[in-house]
Design goal:
Elements: E1 2-5, E2 21-25, H1 27-42, E3 59-63, E4 71-73, E5 101-108, E6 115-117, H2 119-129, E7 138-142, E8 159-161, H3 163-171, E9 176-179, H4 188-198, H5 206-209, E10 217-220, E11 232-237, E12 248-250, E13 254-257
Parallel strand pairs: 5-7, 6-8, 7-9, 9-10
Antiparallel strand pairs: 1-13, 2-3, 4-10, 4-12, 5-11, 11-13
Helix pairs in contact: 2-3
Pfam family, one: Cyclase
Protein name: Kynurenine formamidase
InterPro entries: KFase/CYL (IPR007325), KFase_sf (IPR037175)
């Protein structure tokens, strides 16, 4: 089996709208901390210098949002109420695991300019690859936006789906839609400018707001979709971190290809 990493990193050095804070307790500092804690809480004196190299264990402390790096959006991210089921959308820890491992389909929409991708463009890609997504398949949009990861442009220059395009995939039975862009919707600036020009509320985050009426998940900030050797015939694994009550969870998304 060949494994292809489809995830972008959590990197405190990179540009982020919500900056990542990454503090590292070094192995030496860990030894001193452990010695101090043993003395304070248990009354035990321990000389950290008897440890190999005078070091104990490192510890990383990270402050970030659940939408940093590659992550899965839960239905509760889209709003506090929904029109299906009990009327209360599920959090990331409540979703069925079988949604997040299954056959993948990658759609090449790298020709799309900044803005929205419509249903007709997706149908054109179905025809080109000779495959229409179906229930249980995980659809991945290769927009090429991952080439700008770590730059301000990653958050402003990309293409997202419009409402009809999202509903097309959901009508086919798809439960998980992924993108290598910052968002499955178009950039904030593009959305707001189109709304101000038209007054049409349907242009306001249609990909996310579709989730208020239909239960599905998005994977955002994927990477390396262009390295997949063929548009289907591979599996995707993208299990989200189990955050109780979370609207999203980080994932180490990968593609699994048979040799």
């Amino acid at each position: 089996m060949r494994i292809i990493d489809l995830s972008s990193p959590v990197d405190a050095r990179a540009h982020e709208p919500d900056p990542v804070v990454h503090e590292v307790l070094t192995p030496r500092a860990g030894a001193l901390h452990m010695s101090s804690e043993m003395r304070e809480h248990f009354g035990i004196d321990f000389d950290p210098d008897v440890l190999p190299e005078g070091e104990f264990l490192s510890l990383d402390r990270i402050s970030l949002t659940t939408h940093t790096g590659t992550h899965v959006d839960a239905p509760s991210h889209y709003g506090s109420r929904c029109t299906y089921g009990t009327g209360t959308p599920r959090h990331i820890d409540e979703l069925p695991l079988d949604w997040f491992h299954g056959p993948g389909v990658v759609l090449d929409v790298t020709d799309a300019p900044t803005g929205v991708i419509g249903a007709a463009r997706l149908e054109k890609e179905f025809a080109r690859i000779g495959h229409t997504p179906s229930a249980g398949e995980i659809v991945l949009l290769h927009t090429g936006a991952d080439q700008r990861v770590g730059t301000p442009e990653y958050f402003t220059d990309f293409a997202g789906l419009d409402g009809p395009a999202v509903h097309l995939l959901l009508d086919l039975g798809v439960k998980v839609i992924g993108t290598d862009a910052f968002s499955l919707d178009a950039p904030f600036g593009d959305i707001i400018r189109r709304y101000q020009r038209t007054g049409d509320r349907s242009v306001l985050w249609p990909a996310h707001f579709a989730g208020r009426d239909r239960e599905y998940c998005q994977i955002e900030r994927l990477a390396n979709l262009g390295t997949l050797p063929h548009p289907y015939g591979f599996d995707v694994s993208c299990f989200p971190v189990k955050i109780t009550g979370g609207g999203a969870g980080w994932t180490r998304a990968v593609a699994l290809l048979a040799d």
